[in-house]
Each structure stands twice: as C-alpha cells, then as structure tokens.
Amino acid sequence: MEDIDSILEPLRLSVKEQGDVVRELKTQKAPELDIKSAVAELKKRKKALQDKENELVAAEAPFDRVQFEACLKKRFFYGQAFEIYGGVAGLFDYGPVGCMLKNNIIDIWRRHFIMNDDMLEVECTMMTPSKVLEASGHAQRFADLMVKDLTNGDCFRADHLLEAAIEKALTDKSTSEEIKADMRATSPLIEGFSKQELGAKLNQYNVKSPSSGGDISEPMEFNLMFRSEIGPTGAQPAFLRPETAQGIFLNFKRLLDFNNGKLPFAGAQIGHSFRNEIAPRAGLIRCREFQMAEIEHFYDPADASHSSIDSVKELILPFFTKDAQMGGGKLTKCSIGAALKNEVLCNETLAYFIGRTFLFAKAIGIDPARMRFRQHMDNEMAHYAKDCWDLECRTSYGWVECVGCADRSCFDLQCHAEASKVNLQAERTLPQPIEKEVFEAIPVKKFIAKQFKKDTPAVTEAIQSADASDLEKQFENGEKINLAGFEIGKEMIQFKKSIKKFHTESFTPFVIEPSFGIGRLIYACLEHNYDCREKDVERRFFTIPPLVAPYKCSVLPISNKPEFDPFISTISAGLKNFTLAHKVDKSSGSIGKRYARTDEIAVPFGVTVDFHTVKITPATVTLRDRDSLDQIRVPVQDTANLINDMASQRQTWMQVAARYPSQDDWLKENPLE
Amino acid sequence: MEDIDSILEPLRLSVKEQGDVVRELKTQKAPELDIKSAVAELKKRKKALQDKENELVAAEAPFDRVQFEACLKKRFFYGQAFEIYGGVAGLFDYGPVGCMLKNNIIDIWRRHFIMNDDMLEVECTMMTPSKVLEASGHAQRFADLMVKDLTNGDCFRADHLLEAAIEKALTDKSTSEEIKADMRATSPLIEGFSKQELGAKLNQYNVKSPSSGGDISEPMEFNLMFRSEIGPTGAQPAFLRPETAQGIFLNFKRLLDFNNGKLPFAGAQIGHSFRNEIAPRAGLIRCREFQMAEIEHFYDPADASHSSIDSVKELILPFFTKDAQMGGGKLTKCSIGAALKNEVLCNETLAYFIGRTFLFAKAIGIDPARMRFRQHMDNEMAHYAKDCWDLECRTSYGWVECVGCADRSCFDLQCHAEASKVNLQAERTLPQPIEKEVFEAIPVKKFIAKQFKKDTPAVTEAIQSADASDLEKQFENGEKINLAGFEIGKEMIQFKKSIKKFHTESFTPFVIEPSFGIGRLIYACLEHNYDCREKDVERRFFTIPPLVAPYKCSVLPISNKPEFDPFISTISAGLKNFTLAHKVDKSSGSIGKRYARTDEIAVPFGVTVDFHTVKITPATVTLRDRDSLDQIRVPVQDTANLINDMASQRQTWMQVAARYPSQDDWLKENPLE
C-alpha cells in the first residue's frame, strides 16, 4: 500500500487545499455563488482522488468477478429469482449453500449482539399501513429521481442515465471539445444534483432514452417503497417496510414495560425489507428484497455512557472521518478509546457498537484490512440521522456500505408520538423531587356511572388521559362534549388546579441504530474468501472460517463397498449429534475431484474413509484441512468431537494437528499387508 | 372421554346411516336432485355431531381464553401490530418471549427435518411476478367470496355474514317459525355453498350490512393475494406469495443439479407468506402475514418407498379418515405400519412424513392427546392436491389445522414447465436401453460462425434446445426465421431423422408436501401448556418443555448487595458459554413474586443465589423446577452444565434431582451461624 499512498499524496493535497478554500469562504460569509463554485471544484478533486484510488487498488489485486460469479452460480450459493421465467432484476433466491451460510451468520449475529447484551428481539410485520410511514417521513422522502421514456414507458434513474450519457459522449469523436469540458466538470457533481439541476443537464446534452432513442420526461420523484392495500375495501393503503427499524419504534412502549420501565435497553430485529429500486444492479448489493438485522439502543440522552465500553476500548480501527474526507486525508488508525478522547466518536454508546460491529464482521470472515468506518458527510445523511458511521468493505464494486451505525436521536419516537397521539416517553428519577402546578380533569364517578353503567371505566379512563385544558376549552361551546365516542356532560368532570410533588420527569429517549445488511455482508465475506492455491491457480476455493462455513466437513468413502457404510454411519451420526452440517459424498469421482468440489462450497474439513479405516483396528480416518491442505490421522471415535471443537472455535487446526500423527507418517507405520 | 363417546354414539350412528344412503344412491346412479338432498341431510347430521362434540369437550375442560390472552399480552409474547395507530386486524408482532419461542421452534424444525434427512434448504423471494402465480393457478383460484356494503364500501365474507345473520334471526322473536326452520336447514350447508347459492340465501333472508344497515352487493370473488408492482413502469404486476412452496418448484432444476441429478430429494423453505384476508379473526390462527415451513419431497412416482420408514412404523397415531368422517365414525388409532398395510395411507413417503410431523409436534410441546390426522374430503382439497392429511390440534377454537401433508403429484412442476417452456423433468435409468426414432436440428457451425462470430455458441445452443419439428415448420414460410433474437438462415440448420439408443427416460417427479404453519403451532403449544397449580389456581404458568422454552432459566439474587454480583456473573457467563438464554432478575420483589413472573414466561428452571451461597464454600445455589416445584442444592460450578443438559434433553429433572440434596435437607445440614 506504500506505493499507492505516494501516488495518491498529491491528489490528497489538492483536495485538502480546496477544502481549506471552502472553509475560508464559509467563515468569511462570502457570496453564495462563490461558495457553490468552490464546493463544486472540491467535489471534482474528491472524485479524481477516489477514481485514482479505485484504479490503483484494482490493479494491485485484480479480481475476476465473472469467474467468481460463475462459481457461485454453479454451486447454487444464490441465483436470480424466477430465472425460468426470464428472471427479475434485484430479486435473488438463496440455494442450499447460501442459505446455510446466511443462517450461520444470523445465528452468530444473534449470539454476538442479542444474547451478549441481553437485547429484546422482536419480529414485526412487513406490511405497514401508509400512515405509519407518513409519520416516519418515508412516504415523503424515500425516493429516487427517475425519467420516463415518453414512447415506451421505460424508466431510468436520472443520475445513472446522465452518467452513462456523459461516459458515452466523452468517447465519441463527434462531441465538441467545449461540451466535453463541460461534461467532465459536471460528472463529479451528479450525485448531489437536485431534480432541477439533473433535468437541466439532461436537456442541455439532449439525452435520449437508451431503449427507444426517443424523448424522455423531466426527472420526477419515484418512491422506493412497494405499495399495496390491506383488506378488500381500498381504504387501507399500505407499503412493505423499507427498513425493520420502524417496528421496534412502534413497540417501544411494550418493550419499555417488558424491561420494567428501565433504560438503557436495546430492541433488535432480524427481518426482510423491500425497496422498489428503479433499475437494480450489482447483484446482492442492491436488491429489491433483502434481509436486515437492526438494533435500536434506547438511552437517556443525559447519559450516553456504556457499561461495557472497556471491552472494546483497546480495539484499533480504521476511521475515515468527515474532516478527513473534506481534507483528502487518509484513514485515522487509532483505538476506540483514543477516538473517544479526540472526539472523533461523539459518545460511548456509539463507540461501543462500532467496536462490536468490527468484531462481528471479523468473526464472519470479512478481511479487517478491507474494512473502514466512514463517517457520513452532513449532506448525505438520511432524513432521520444526526450522525452516522458506515462499516464499508472494499470489494470489486469499490467500497460498499455493509453496516450503518446511525445516531437517530429522538427523531422517530417523536414523530410517532405526535402522529399517534400516544406518549412514547420514558421516566428518569430526579435527584430531588420538584413541585409543579398541575391542572387536572377529575372524573365524577356518580354522574358517569348513572349514564354509562358498564362503560364507566372506559369513560373514566378517557377523561383521565385527555388534556385537561383542552377539555375545559371544549366546554366553552356547550354543556356536552364528545370524547372517545361518549357524550360527556359538564357535571361529569371536575377541573382542579393544584401543586404536586414529582419524583420523576419524562423525556424522549435517544437511540443509536446499528443496521446490518445481511446480503451485503454475505457478498463481502464471499469475495474476501475467494482464493486459489499457488500450485493450482485454476482451482478456486472459499476460505470461509469454520465458524461460518455452510457445511463443517465432508465425509468421503474411498470406495462404494458395503463394508465402508458402518463407518460412514457412525461418523455421520456423531456429527448430527452435535448439529454439525456435513456432506456425505459417495459418488465415484476421485478423492481429488471430490475435495475440489467441497473446496468450492467452502467445506473446511474433509474426513476420508479408506481401506486402512476398514482393515486396521482401532479404526482411523484421514482428516484434511482445506486451508493448509495438511492431513492427519485420527481415530473414528474422535472425529465428531474434533470437528465440533474446530467449528465452534474452541480449538484451531494447529492445536488439533499437533496432537495426531500426520497422514504420511501414519501410513508409513501402518502399511496394509 | 368415555361419557362423551356414549353421548355421541347415537349422533354418529345417524351420520353413518345417512352416509350409507348417499353411497347407495350414488351406486344406483339416482337422479342428481335426490343425491343432492341426501348429501345436504348428511351435512346437517355431521354438523350436529361436530357441534355436540365441541360443546361436550368445552364443558369438560373449560378454557378461559380472555385470561389466557391477557397473560400473553401482559408478558408481550405477541401483540397486535400497529397498536399505537389503532391496530390492523390480522397483523401481529412477536415480542421477546414469543420471538425466542418461535426461534427455538424453527431451530428444532430445521434439525428435525432438514438436517435429519439432508434436505436442501432454499430462501426465495416473497415478491412474485403475476405470471408465476397465474401458472400455479393462484391468480385464478385463490379467492374468497365477499359482499360489499353499497353505502359505505365495507366488505364482509359472504359466508360469515350469512352465518351471523342466521344466528341473530334465530334468537329474534319476530322471525317466523317457517323461516327459522329454513335457516336451521341452511346453516350446515353454508360452507359448501357456491357464489349463486350464497347470493340467493342472502337475498331470501334480506340480509343487510352490519355496519350501515344498508344494502349489500351480490357475492363476488376477492383474490386473497396482496397485489403490488415491481419497478416503476407498471409493466410488472406482482403478488406477495401466498405460500413458500412455489419458490421450491421454481428452483427444482437447480436443486436437482445440486443433488447430482438424483431423486428422491427434498427442498425445504422457512419463510413468510401473505393472505389478504377479508376479515381476519381468531388471533394467530388466521393472519394476513405469517411464517411457514414447507418441504417439497420430490420422488419418482414409480417408487414411493422411503428408506427411513422403519424409524416411524411403530408409532401409533390417531387417524381420522375421510370414510370415518362420512360414516360419523371415530378416530382409528393404529400404527403407521398398520395404516400402510390397510391402505389408510397410500404410500410410504406420505406415511414417513406424517410420522415425523407427529414426533416434531410432540417435541415442541403439543399435547398428543389433542392431536389427530384428518384426511381431506374430496370436495375440500386445494386445487393442486390429490390427497391431503392435516395435523389438527384441538384448541379453544375447535380443531385447528396446524400442518398439512399434501400429495401434490406433479401438478406444480407441470404447470411451470408449460408456462415457462423450461424442461422440469428428471431422468430415470432404464432397466434396458431402448431405441427410438428422433428428429433433430443440427447446427451447421461454419455458416453460423461466418455470420454470428462470437455469438456462435449462443446461436448453436438456441438451435439445439428448440423443438426440431417446430423449426422445420417455421421455415415453410421463408428462408429465414427468428430464434432467440437471431435471424437464422436455412443453411445454418441440418434436419435429421435417426434411430438412437436411450439408457434413460424423462419423467416429471411427484411431490409430497408437508407444510407447517408456525404461528398456529405456537398458538397450540401455548394453549396446551397453559396451566395452574391445584393450590393456587389464580397464578397461571406455562409448562412449555425446556427444549423449546424461550428462556432456559432465571438467575435470582435474594439481595442486591454487591457481594452477590460475582456469583451472578459466573453463572451468567457459564450459561452464555452454552448459548443458553436466561433472565437475570435483580429487582427487589420477593422471591415468590419473581418466581411467579418467570413462570408466566415459561422459564423452566430457577437459580437462586442466597446468603448461603455467599457465605458457605464451596458456593452452592438453589435450583428450582417449574413443573414439580421441587428445589435442590447444587454447586455454582455445576449449574450451567445441568441447565444445558436439561435444556437439550440429555437429562431429565428427575435424573438431576436424584444426584443432589433437596434444598430442605441441605439447609438443615448447613445452617448459617
């Protein structure tokens, strides 16, 4: 990486200089136009830096994505959904190997987060009434800009279309130099363009529809949520949820009760979400239906400390702060403790989750050297976030956001409290009780009971939970008011002002949200573990760690003779006893071929039953390690135990191998007559 | 049950007599009208029998559902979704306890079925293009009949509305005796009514809308699938899947490849499905969004044997055959082996899955005495099924279908092969090779390569996979034809008839589908395990077995003093090491109160840390068994191991208790000074 750094240095400097210019203009309160053009220049320089970095990294570690994807398809890790009907973009089905990998990752996630920190798991519905997503802001703001082909109705993402048109025109000889210069200046700005700016550029360059060559519409907002309706009447419009977070917010009160009213606590949810992408691409990275695992850690904003911060304080992580991004700077590698001290991270709770996220990603086999935590720039934050750090993984698609750790403050609880008129606050004990004047509406039971009989409790409760001043105001217009469907007379309520002592006060909790894209993590895990051996570069395999690997071992008899069967059964039963997924392959291919096949589906260990197994007592088998290719000889009765220890990371291969003879040594000492 | 049987005997006899009448008329080929009226009479008698049985059973074991549901709500097992926005019928959120219970049940399912029988798990998308569900028949036939309130647009299930109207009219003094008689005769027939018959009766009884009192529409079909659209163009209509099965069928070819082309094999899927019920009721039993676990076991119809049938042959199960239902007969209790011999069960594969289903339901705590396997009558089978056996569980809602084991024969694979034009067959080796005349289209490479260059392989493949006779026919109209987007000249194809030797033949596999409704199983498990103790009937608890219980134990310090903390930490760390979910409750309530609270969330074991723990070395704790209320004294260091053994059913409480002193004995011998 040293070389790359030295090449990038001047580009970084150029970003930094321009960043300083922008800052200076802002402090001087320079004219808006001047600032805007300085920012545009800054963006151009940042893009040049980014492009160069991507180019250098790709050149250093070339990755054959076509071959990689062919391997995933051949072994059915996952595949395009509805392929026999021509396929649907952005929808994928997981096959047996992908499914097991995913189940293992989710299982580890549940242990690493939910069990480790006593979180409260919920499972909420995907189908969501519109009013909920109106309250959260998604119905208004969760949209991409698109243009429509006016002749055939095809739709395109406006920014992608403009990018593609510029790319094409730049290689076209007939494009004038003047226009090319304008295009080069425009290109880095596209990501931040407004609807109007995109429309203007599409017009200026006379961009046509790629499918028909015909005219396109002005850019328009397209909401990315799938729309449906609940029930047959048409009166309950609904969306499929775009994130699992909302379900946790809606259940906040129940979870707070479950936790005996105490903060902090975290709700967690693993589930599917949906985004109706205009034109999905990049495989598992941008799907229309995908699985997430989200945590909402609710805490009192007066105390953002975390009781387990010490367990992650020493971790050294690569931070890419927003200042560094503005300054063209490099990653800051420092401990979480130091990042807290330097105010790179704003509070312990956020810091704790960043640390846990790193440990999780490492545990599932993502390469720490290809991870970074990037802070969002102010202009790229989602509508609900106050601060956000993404765990990005470097893949052949560039840096990909796999986890987001967002500080949503009290945005969501406040939105829902306001829209639903339900109190979504928690209580904190005051250091000293305070006295306050209160105005109350006190139900007068005898009058209520006289009229409402068995509905008395409902009426009483309605009066108590209503706002007293509000009720009093309503009576100004007459002797009776309507409350929760009941007609209430003036005599049924007594209004009273008094001084009361309060030992607690209410507040809306803040929330830190670590949000994991399972599909993206799986993709990064697969790419980071795709490998070949020096002596056989054509044969590819996956080095997925045993803890996460779909199958923990293979069981391969060297012959199909019936005397092999009892050994296969014993070993298989032992493995099943530990719930260890394994693959018995009795097919007639050579052992080498069968090893290659198991390598391709990431099986870390191979158990081979050979003629020595059958003939020499006590019975032994060959145990092969995928990553080192080492083979040792172990007793049949130890096999399941050893695999279990290695699959659960209680022992490493090295530790196991040290205790048993190597296959070669053993064979020398145990010849078959 | 003896008493109930003797009361029901005459009713059963009356059903049987009428069943014989219907059979006799059918064999005599009597006029259709005679048969119809005899069948109507049979249905009335069956309904009378069913009603009486339900009444007697409810009287024998009264179940307070209101209290039961209050308990589930209080401890947030699950609750109505979107409650703070008023709630949506048929949508439920699982809270922490329900979620853990569900995760455990799914985990056991995966081990019991997928791992035990080496099934291939897949995870397919829920969003499904319409054409797929048109091919499967769901777009046409997956509907309920509803009527619309013509004044306000409210919708009602036509059959439910008619039932409710009859019930009301029968208690109304103003209804004439003549009409009452007609209504009583109509009531048992409603379930089987056609659209026209329902409409006629609603008209005859002048049924009005319950919400406005206004007129209602004629009954109309309402498709129960949620509708949406993929992408922004409106050109890709879609539904949310109504079952997970279709995803397995669509991936049949990939799974067959994964299994090296061999049958039998089973695909399995655990996932969510959606049904837009018109008016859902009955809680978890009829939801609009629910989780299923489905297996599609593909096999060669020439061989429906199952290699593991012996493992279930001795199981004695309660079968309720369709003949018994026609004859008003009782359950047949017999072994699976006998049921196969007597042709109660039509093949080994179906029989095997019925046996495994029973074992699974028992393992997750459903009461075997409240289970039966009911065979579908011919007129109630889904459009795809040839035979079907439901595992029904008796609950306070009556007998509820929790699992269906359907024989779908080759219906689905054939539908999709036809609609997608993709071959979805498998191959079987012939006992002897056969010779057949074939007509082939052979690509002529030199002409293809000359014109298509790098597309040559694609063109070659397109020619080879097309139907040769079809291609020849197309050339009758000209020298060139269009194939897969390529313009193919006559010279590029050579047509050839020849005799070929075949060692295999193709066939469409048959499928047995065990389909599990997770929510219904959870509901049955909860109801069957809701209990109280004789000496304290007010205090309810759940006897869910340790294997499935959400939390495996509680850890309760008797005091909040800091010297208790190290013991809590040691025990908790030990439990986490085994991934055993547990609940530490340091709250100040009495131990009795805290036990009651853990009883309510089904915690099977309680660990109490008391002053003896702190003061006497080696440290010991009290271990309490929820079901027997027995308490023993065990060393702190044994605790996690013991809980782990009991939670994974390696040891029972009885076995553990036999090895340690009872709490009382131990206290007597170890007084605190």
Explain this structure.
- The structure is a homodimer of 673-residue chains.
- By secondary structure, chain A is an alpha+beta fold.
- Among the domains of chain A are: 62 residues; 31 residues, no CATH class; 81 residues, 2-Layer Sandwich (Herpes Virus-1); 73 residues, no CATH class; 119 residues, Rossmann fold.
- The first copy, chain A, contains 25 helices and 28 strands.
- Chain A has a 9-stranded mixed beta sheet with strand order 3-10-11-21-16-15-14-12-13, sandwiched between helices.
- In chain A, helix 1 runs antiparallel to helix 2 and helix 20 packs parallel to helix 23.
- The first copy, chain A, is globular, with a radius of gyration of 31 Å.
- The two termini of chain A are 56 Å apart.
- At the A-B interface, strand 2, helix 4, strand 3, strand 4 and strand 8 of A face strand 2, helix 4, strand 3, strand 4 and strand 8 of B.
Topology:
2 copies of one chain form a homodimer.
Chain A (H helix, E strand, L loop, with lengths): L1 H26 L4 H29 L4 H10 L3 E3 L11 E3 L1 H20 L4 E2 L5 E3 H6 L2 H4 L1 E6 L6 E3 H13 L6 H10 L8 H10 L15 E4 L3 E3 L7 E4 L4 H6 L1 H7 L6 E10 L14 E11 L16 E5 L1 H5 L5 E4 H6 L6 H16 L7 E5 L11 E9 L2 E12 L1 H10 L5 E18 L1 H8 L3 H10 L2 H8 L4 E4 L2 E4 L3 E15 L2 E8 H11 L1 E4 L2 E7 L10 E5 L7 H13 L4 E3 L6 H10 L4 E5 L1 H5 L4 E6 L5 E5 H12 L5 H5 L5 H7 L4
Parallel strand pairs in A: 3-10, 12-14, 24-25, 24-26
Antiparallel strand pairs in A: 1-2, 4-9, 5-6, 5-7, 8-9, 10-11, 11-21, 12-13, 14-15, 15-16, 16-21, 17-20, 18-19, 22-23, 26-27, 27-28
Helix pairs in contact in A: 1-2, 20-23
